[in-house]
Amino acid sequence: MLDPKLLRTDLSGVAAQLARRGFVLDTDRVAALEEQRKAVQIEADRLRAERNAQARAVGQAKARGGDATALIAQGEALGAKLTALEGRLVDIQAGLMRLQLEVPNLLHASVPEGRDETANVEIRRWGEPKHFAFEPKDHVALGERLGMDFEAAGRISGARFVVLRDGLARLHRALIQFMLDLHTREHGYREVYVPYLVHAAALEGTGQLPKFEQDLFAVRGDPGFYLIPTAEVPVTNLVRDQIVDAARLPMKLVAHSPCFRSEAGAAGRDTRGMIRQHQFEKVELVHIVEPERSYAALEELTSHAEAVLRALELPHRVVALCAGDVGFASAKTYDLEVWLPSQERYREISSCSNCEAFQARRMQARWRNPATGKPELLHTLNGSGVAVGRALVALLENGQTEDGKVVLPAALAPYLGGELTLG
Question: Catalytic annotation on 248?
Answer without folding.
Answer: no
